[in-house]
Amino acid sequence: MNEDNKITDKKVIETEITMGTVHSAAIEPYRVRLFVEDEIVRDAEITIGINHRGIERIMEGLPVEKANSLTEKICGICSNSHIWNSVLVAEKAIGIDVPERAQYIRVIMEELERLHSHMLYLAHGSEVLGHETFAMRVFYIRETVMELLRMIGGNRVQYGVSIIGGIRPRCELDEMRIQKIREGMDIIDEKILEFADRFVSDPMIMARVTGVGILSQKQAIELAATGPTLRSTGVELDLRREMEAYDPFEFDIITQDDGDVKSNLLCRVLEIPEATKIIRQALDHLPDGKITNRSWEMQDAPITKSYIEVPRGKLYHSYSLEDGRVRNSIVRTPSITNIGAMQYAAVGHHITDAQLAIVQCDPCFTCTDRAIQIIKI
Amino acid sequence: MTPITSLIAIIGTLIVALLVSVWLPGIERKFVQARIQQRVGPPISSAGIMAPLKFFFKETIKPHSPMPKLYNALPIVSFLSVLFILLIIMPQLYVFAAFTSIIAIVGLLKIEEVIYMFMGSLSKSVMSLKMPFPDIIKGAKHPGTHRSYLEELSSLRAYRLIAFGSFPLYIALFVPVAMSRSIYLSGIVAYQQVHGPILFTLAGVLGAIVFFIGYMILLNEYPFAILKTKADVIEGPLMEYAAKYRAYVYITRGFLMFVLASIFTTLFLGIPPNLFSWTILVTIAVALIFPILMAIMSAFSPIFTYKQFYPTVAGVSVIGILAILASFL
Questions:
Q1: pLDDT digits (tens, 9 = 90+) for B80-121
Q2: Contact in structure between A315 and A334 (CB atoms under 8 Å)
Q3: Which terminus of chain A has a lower count of CB atoms within 10 Å, N or C?
Q4: Taking CB atoms and an 8 Å cutoff, what residues of chain A touch B155?
Q5: Is 60 exceeded by the pLDDT of residue A208?
Q6: Binning pLDDT at 50, 70 and 90, where does residue A376 land?
Q7: Closest residue on chain A to B301 (Cα)
Q8: Is the pLDDT score of A7 beyond 50?
Q9: What is the domain range of residue B232?
Q10: How many other CB atoms are found less than 10 A from the CB of residue B126?
Q11: In which domain, by residue range, is A304 found?
Q12: B276 — phi, psi (to 5°)?
C-alpha cells in the first residue's frame, strides 16, 4: 500500500499542472489539476461538468417513450444500459410483465455492451500507457462486438433495443443472428485470452501498471466506488446477482486484490469471458414466445427507482409518471463516484502515471456530467 | 580531389541526404508501425514530404511565448546544427582537423538537445491556461498555487535528458575514439581502413547497441519519449509550432535520423557519407534500417516514466563503459 496515497487537502503545495479540458490522454473533456512536487503528484482535483447537457431537464414533461429514447443519448458507450434502466423504471412503476425471451435478449445486449465497453477501456488504457500497438489490436478485436451490436440494433452506438414491455421487433434474434453471435463469442474468447496473456507477460507493461494508482479497499468503500473499480480492491459486489434478469445465468464475480491499475485492467479483462459465458447461456436457453408485452395501460405513478449493473458499475434511474409524461427524472451514473475516488488514487505517483491512475476507473464524462446535489452529512 | 569536385561532392551528398531523410519518418511511423498495428496508415510520403509541404502553405500563427520570434527561430537553429554535423563528417572537410572531431559532433548534438530546453521554456500554450473562476472558487483545492505550463515541464525533462538521458549516445561515440586512439574523424576512418570496421569487434558490437538506444533517446521515440509524452505534456516543447515552423521541425527530425545513421557508419564502419563513392549506399541502407528497428521497438513498448527510464539509461551506459573498456583489450 502506498503511504502517500491519502487525502492531503491541508498540505502546502506551490506548483500545479493542469491538464484539460482538452487533452490527448482524455477521450472526453474534463480537467485535472495536479499539485506537484518535482513531478510527483501530491494532490489532485478533477473538475467535471464541461459536457453538461441537462438531459433530466429535457426529459421533464416528455412522453415516457420519448424520454426513454432520450436516455440512450446520455452515453455513446453504455447507451443500452441507460435505455434498459429507464424502461425498467416505467415497467416497475406501471407493473408490466416482460416476456422471458425479451429479458434474455436484453441481457445479451447488455453483455455485448459490457464486452465493447471493457475493450474500449483496454484500448484507451493502452494508449495512455503509450502502447499504441496493443490499443490498435484491442480495437481490432472490439470490431467483432461492434458488428454484432450493429446487426442486432441496426447501429453501432444507439441501438434502441429496449422498449416498455419488451424489445423492438427489429431486434428479434433469428437463427442466422444467433449463429453469428456464437461465432463472434468464439472469436472474442480466443483473441482476448491471447491478448491478456501477452499483456500480463510483457515486463515493460507490468512495470508501468503494477503498484500504480492504488485505491485501498477502505478508500473504495468510503468513496463509494462501484463496479470493476470497487471489485478490483477485493470487494465481491456485483448488482447482476440481485437483478431478476440475470437469475437464470451462472457467472463468477471477478475480483482482484491490489486496487491498482493492474488489478483494474485484469478485473475487466477477466470479466470479458464471463460476459461471453452469459451470452452463450442466453443463446442456448433462449425461450420461445413473444418479445413484447403490449397489454398494458399507462397510469400515473410515484417516483420509482431502478438500479442495474452496467460496465462501469451501478446505474440509477428514477422518475415519476403523470399523464404518461416523465416528472422528476434523476440519472446517476457510476463514473461520478469512481472519478471522485481517482483523485486519491493519483496521489503519490509521477505525473505520467497520474493520468493512468485516473483512467483506470474507466471514466465516462458525458454520462456523468449532470446536475448533482451533494448532501454533506 | 580539386576544390570544385569537393564542393560538388559536399553539395551532392547534402542533396542525397535531404532526399533520403524526407522518407525516413514515413518509413518509421507508417510503413513499419502501421503494419505492426494492423492498420492501413497514410501514405509513406505523408510524414516527411506531404505534411511539411502542406505546413509551408498554412497560415502562421503567433505562439503564446514571451519571445515568439526566438521561439520560431529555434527549429531553424536546430536544423543548422544537424546540417553542420553532416558537413563535418564528410571526408572532403577532414582538412579542417579541429572542426572534424568527435568533440565537434558532441558539441553540435548538445546544441540540438539544448534547443528543446529553450523551446519548452519559451512556450506557454493555451493547454495549461488558468481558469480563474473554478480554480479559486470556495472549495477549490490550493487556490494560490503557481501554475506551471506543460511546456515548462517538458523543458525540465529536456534538462534531465541533457544531464543524464543522452549518456548512452555520447559513451557510444567514444568507443571508436578509444579503439583508434584519435578524436579526429579522419583518424577513426583511417584506423578502420587498416584494421577493419570497429563494428565487427566486441567493443564495436556493444557500442553499436548503446548507440542505437542513444539514437532512440535523442530522437525522443517511444519508450524514451518523456519529452513529448501523450499522457501528460502532449507535444511538449513542439506544441506551439505551426505552419512553416512545424514543417522545419518535421524536416529536421528526418534529417537528424539520416545524420545519426551517417555518424554511425563513419564511426563504426569507417564509411563517411560521400557521393563519389559506392559506400554512400551503405550509409543510406543504415539510415533506412535504423528507423525500421526503432519503429519495431517503439511499437512494442509503453512510454517509460523516470522509474523505468533511469535504470534503463544506467544499464545501457554501463554496457557503453564496458565497450570502452573492451576497446583497450
A1: 999 999 999 999 998 887 789 999 999 999 999 999 999 999
A2: yes
A3: C
A4: none
A5: yes
A6: low
A7: A131
A8: no
A9: 3-126+148-327
A10: 10
A11: 15-368
A12: -85, 15
Chain B partners of A211 at a C-beta cutoff of 8 Å? Answer: none
Q: How far is A131 from chain B (nearest CA, A)?
A: 4
Q: Does A129 touch chain B (CB under 8 A)?
A: yes
What is the nearest CA distance from B222 to chain A, expressed in angstroms? 8
pLDDT at A211: 94
Domain for residue A5, yes or no?
Answer: no
Cell match 448488482: residue? Answer: A239
Q: Is B138 inside a domain boundary?
A: no
- A373 or B280, which is more confident? B280
Residue B92 lies in a domain: yes
pTM of this structure? 0.92
Which cell numbers hold the place of A69? 429514447
Cβ–Cβ contact A23 with B under 8 A: yes
B72 with B63: CB under 8 angstroms? Answer: yes
Q: A372 pLDDT band (50/70/90 cuts)?
A: low
Tally of domains within chain A:
1
pLDDT tens-digit map of B1-12: 788 999 999 999
- Cα end-to-end span (Å), chain B: 37
Asked if residue A314 belongs to a domain, the reply is: yes
**Is A372 at the interface with chain B, CB within 8 A?**
no
Is A74 exposed, middle or buried, given 0-12, 13-18 or 19+ CB atoms closer than 10 A? buried
Q: Domain containing A129 — which CATH number?
A: 1.10.645.10
B36 interaction partners in chain A (CB closer than 8 Å)? 133
A138-152 pLDDT tens trace: 999 999 999 999 999
Three-state DSSP at A288 gives coil
- For residue B132, being part of any structural domain is answered with no
DSSP string for residues in B174-201: HHHHHHHT-SBHHHHHHHHHHH--GGGS
Extract the runs of DSSP E, i.e. beta strands, from B53-190.
146-148
First CA to last CA distance, chain A: 29
Residues of A in contact with B128 (CB under 8 A): 17-19
Number of domains forming the structure of chain B: 1
Least Cα separation, residue B298 to chain A (angstroms): 8
Q: Which element (helix H / strand E) includes A326?
A: strand A325-332
Establish how many alpha carbons lie within 13 A of residue B105's alpha carbon, considering only the half-sphere containing its beta carbon. 27
How much is the ipTM here? 0.90
Query: Choosing among B145, B220, B229, B304, which should be mutated to test the A contact, i.e. which has the most A CBs within 10 A?
Result: B145
> What is the pLDDT averaged over residues A240-262?
95
